[in-house]
Amino acid sequence: MKFFVDTADTKEIADLADTGLLDGVTTNPSLIAKSGRNFLEVVKEICALTDGPVSAEVVAPDFDGMLREAEIVRKLAPNVCVKLPLTMDGLKACKRLTNEGTMVNVTLCFSANQALLAAKAGATFISPFVGRHDDTGQDGMDLIEDIRLIYDNYDFTTQILVASIRHPIHILQSARIGADVITAPPAVLKGLAKHPLTDKGLELFLADWAKTGQTIA
Ligand code: E4P
């Protein structure tokens, strides 16, 4: 399973890229606004921090506008992945861009039928939002199971990118289901390495080691 980080904070991205565990980055207009930076500048900078796909979302609501903006965005770097909303215009733009060899992430997916359409449109990634689904009182992970089943039934190559992840259980369940990618905020990704028994065990080992008076040199 690939790990993407969901942020436009270049310091956080650089820190995670340094671990060698980061496979890509996703951004959205809200994350760009939070960064306080110029959209094109920050996307370009992020693309230089990772070799993996960097999702950059266009904001035009119509097909022609989406293509116009995608043209600017995809020129930024070879690893740019154009992010399009799951609307009829977005799907039409997806078909056009993927036919031209551009990576596309279809975002704001909340149903398995929407995911089916995105696969038919040739999307590189489909982004079902599990956390926002949970917020409405449904189980977002049920959606991931359905999409996995449908994509496998027809050998669709669109990668399931589980988005709107709020906690480590979402990531565990994504891995159990066999999702292709997860994207999560930096704190959630870093939190995966944490366990109180690891911290306690390490403390005990180091205390015992100190008693030996040895050094490894
Ligand atoms: C995905 O690409 C989106 O940027 C993101 O995961 C949305 O997450 P949120 O629901 O926490 O805003």
Can you tell me about this structure?
- The protein has helices at residues 10-18, 29-35, 39-49, 63-74, 88-99, 112-120, 130-135, 140-153, 168-177, 186-191, 196-212, and strands at residues 2-6, 24-26, 54-57, 80-85, 103-109, 125-128, 159-162, 181-184.
- By secondary structure, the protein is of the alpha/beta class.
- The protein has a single domain, classed as Aldolase class I (TIM Barrel, Alpha-Beta Barrel), CATH 3.20.20.70.
- Strand 5 (103-109), helix 6 (112-120) and strand 6 form a beta-alpha-beta unit.
- Helix 1 (10-18) packs parallel to helix 3 (39-49), helix 6 (112-120) packs parallel to helix 8 (140-153) and helix 8 runs parallel beside helix 9 (168-177).
- The relative contact order is 0.12.
- Erythose-4-phosphate is lined by residues 6, 26, 28, 107, 127, 129, 131-132, 163-164, 183.
Summarize the structure.
The protein has 217 residues and is of the alpha/beta class.
Brief descriptors of the model:
217 residues, single chain, alpha/beta, binds erythose-4-phosphate
| CATH topology value | TIM Barrel
**Annotated CATH homologous superfamily:** Aldolase class I
| Order of helical and strand elements | EHEHHEHEHEHEHHEHEHH
Can you count the helices? 11
Output mean pLDDT.
Answer: 98
Broad structural category: alpha/beta
What small molecules accompany the polymer chains? erythose-4-phosphate
Distance between the termini: 37 Å
Give the proportion of residues in helices: 40-55%
Number of strands: 8
Arrangement of strands in the largest sheet: 1-2-3-4-5-6-7-8
Number of domains: 1
Assigned CATH class = Alpha Beta
